């Protein structure tokens, strides 16, 4: 042990003697290890860390797949109200099973009224999750069945709105202006559902307590609910799948006549898989990108240490001549490398902590569990293991290069400087060629993502977002329990907003483009015979009011917009988008054509198409356009015919869309004031410009592009530094050769050309290997591209040419330095 500490002190002393080398090596490793650790902390928090529930591997999602429905993602349609009741009652595989759905409430009685995210749950959800409340209790099945108005708060809501008071239990809050009794507070780390992003977390949970409308037979066609369950001990997911499928068959046998054509199959799969499936491709790509940067940093460090070993050949030869063993020299070299890597690792951990603190809010909203991303012991252990592994790997080549020193030859050379050994030169060149190849792969990926982002930004959205202000609202049912009250509010809101200075048009909609929301409605087209094996007729539906289309700037292609005459009792009308019209009436005028809501067996009235509008991007611009139709809110009840219920309410929430001649930011306060003048307690949500909404929908792709481009820039910079160091060392070790060439008549331009050709050869070989690597990487990258081939010739050519030019630039300074040698002084010095 004493010998080890002596060697450690000697290694530290040797590094202190070369502060420039030491500082460069430590900073290079700190950047590589810090970036890798920061990205790994995201990967660990989102993908690898178990869900924050007891025995999370036993938690399963239960959902339906609806035959003939093209549903994006994993194809799951969710479940219906009858599904929840049947699966809960009849399956035998779950120790706890429950259904839930998202909800939004106006919360008052606790500071300023605010719109909050919440979930309605059946009691089986808490039983399945197995998390005990921090305070109080969760609601029971009896409270759910008897529609008891009780609420369980999240830890954040308890702290923020109630200052963490332990006397909160038994107090009441108003949700949609109805009193709810607070019965519990969940622990700090409890989050459910595990939604993506930072803005969608639930603030409270209330009993599902199905409403009379939800219990009507037609609710069996509403797949907007979800289910979660915990497997019983000894039950496998496959057994639970078979059990659920048996119940699904029974559910279909009980379908009413109007749903006889619908067929479902059950899906049981782990909650962990459901939570991370959308994030996995992005995180895998990011982790590989940052690993590439670390690899290049390691190659650079290995190259620097190799140069250092070559320059210390005489010292090593003297030590060997004095009796130093090969093991001692190897241990000394490895200790120096480990000291550098551990120093870089500790500094990298600090950089990673700073990066996460600053950058967590910039992460895309498509990532779940963002609040759990942190430098925990797993991440710290990973960083330290990475540092030790890096030190060992980077020190091996230089250490063995030092051991291969020819003692007699080196001591005979004395102080003469000649070219380094051919083996050393080849090793250094191999490292640099590999760096260039890897950097080119990353640079190509960056170029492809930049082109994808450019393509996305140039997509026609189908509407004009400039000069548009939007806001979400939801009318509480207690004050707006009847349709006339809702209609009166909406009419007065439109009237007052139209009178604001600068307003050109205003409308209301149930579905805002770029919001990321989604819905699907089945329909029947008059006279249309679907081809064999065709999917169900599905379209996204938006109910609109006022001058919605002019407000959004959606072009009218045929027919007309809705007018004040399209009221209840008038002819039932609708407007379709171009994609729907071209699907069912290709190369025809759709005006006057008819369709109706529901399946062929449902008794619903025919709706006449009076207008065709441009296709609108409903979420991100890079998402496929969907078939869509619009209906006037005043006719919403009549459109569903026999599916309607006397208690149905329409137009009691949605989005305000206001177009003005003034900058939209200036209209936000006027919009808030106008709503408050009608209902002083009604909160607005997502008050923003339409351009901001579009920008948020572009955020995931922008994040991918910026981050990978940053890593590509760092990788190319490190590769250029590698080329410079190799060429500079080569020039320094060939001073005598250059002096002799010049003494024999070589021109300075020939010397410059000789050095530049050396650098260009390394870069050319690296580019060939890099292009091959980019081709091999195409499968991984293709899922992140939009409108661009992974073999885009322009990107590949520009990336290769760019690397070649940078390599020549890096060789330029050593080349001019070689050309400026004074032959007489150089030869006399030798």
Overview of the structural elements:
It is a single chain. Helix 2 (19-48) crosses helix 12 and helix 11 packs antiparallel against helix 12 (377-403). This protein has 26 helices and 21 strands. The strands form 2 sheets. The protein has a 6-stranded mixed beta barrel with strand order 2-3-8-5-7-6. By secondary structure, the chain is an alpha+beta fold.
What are the salient characteristics of this protein?
single chain; 830 residues; alpha+beta; 6-stranded mixed β-barrel; 26 helices; 21 strands
Mean pLDDT: 82
- Note the total helix count: 26
Radius of gyration of CA atoms, rounded to a whole number:
34 Å
Oligomer kind: single chain
Structural class determined from secondary elements: alpha+beta
Biggest beta-sheet profile: 6 strands, mixed, barrel
How many E strands?
21
Shape: elongated
Helix content: 40-55%
Q: Which strands sit side by side, in order, in the main sheet?
A: 2-3-8-5-7-6
CA distance, first residue to last residue: 44 Å
Strand fraction equals: 15-25%
Spans of 5+ residues with little confidence (pLDDT < 50)?
Answer: 414-420
